[in-house]
Known about the structure:
elongated; alpha/beta
Amino acid sequence: xxxxxxxxxxKILSDFIGQKNALDSFRERTINLLSDLLQQKKILIHxxxxxxxxxxxxxxxxxxxxxxxxxxxxxxxxxGIRIISYLESDVDIISNLISKEFKVDPKNSIDKRELxxxxxxYKSLHLVVNLNNLRANLTEYKDYKNIKCEIQIRSILxxxxxxxxHDLGYKGKSAIPDQYKRNFNRLAALLETxxxxxDRLKNELSNYEERVGKLIKKSPQNVLINQASxxxxxxxxxxxxxxxxxxxxxxxxxxxxxNNDFRGILERFEFFEMRTIKDIEDSxxxxxxxxxxxxxxxxxxxxxxxxSITITLFYYQHFLxxxxxxxxxxxxxxxxxxxxxxxxxxxxxxxYQKIKEKx
Length: 359
């Protein structure tokens, strides 16, 4: 290393020490900002994390690229943030969001997903960004106006491959001994295929969710009970709507629209030998009067400020269990589906018998 390079390196490292607190603060603010933006756009991610290079790592980076850097600002990955999405298709969605909210440096950004047709392996999108002018002029961000960071975006399976590849200590196909390259390619291709298949599955499930309401109206006897069909039925069925209004009038409950948590509920319909949406529909029509009377007794002493909209189906299953008037059957019901239900069998039966006597 010549004297000029040494002097430049010392200047960069000195500036780094002086700006370390600001760099750390920028990292945390950017992570929080990204988290808020993703949440606002309802983009689900697996994880977001960040790091600021330490002194030793920065020193080694400068040594490897002696003629490249003349100032600390030219090193664009001192602050690094990693976003791990669930699906590969989400990478582009997240990238588009970042491009709208930050100023992207195209010269230093790189899309490592663009492999040749005969290549498999590490895939990730690296965006070098800094704050856009609008945000940089805000009081809370003005100190970070000229700081850049590198944001890596990749799917959870791409992340798994990168971590395993790193652990193996062989970075890229060319580093692998020839006799193991076939295995390397096969494993990389499996993960890439899995990424594509998860994306395809998500699209197919989304299409089914959009169609299931029409399928229920047309032929409920052909629609099996699953999360998508039960979610639609729970919202659209008139008897369940009336039941929610009844419970709300008694308790003052407000329903929060968590309409995808059917843990245990799905399984317990099997307990009652219900397989299709029509099975539930017919059962509700048959038992509507008694079910509503049961609810008047069952919920009157319950106190929740808000409750999930799925509670109606949960209580209908309570009603069906109580209707058996069989303590053994009720105990089986309470344990069915892997989620233990509280309350004594005696109380279940007593509540049902109260309404039975009136009717």
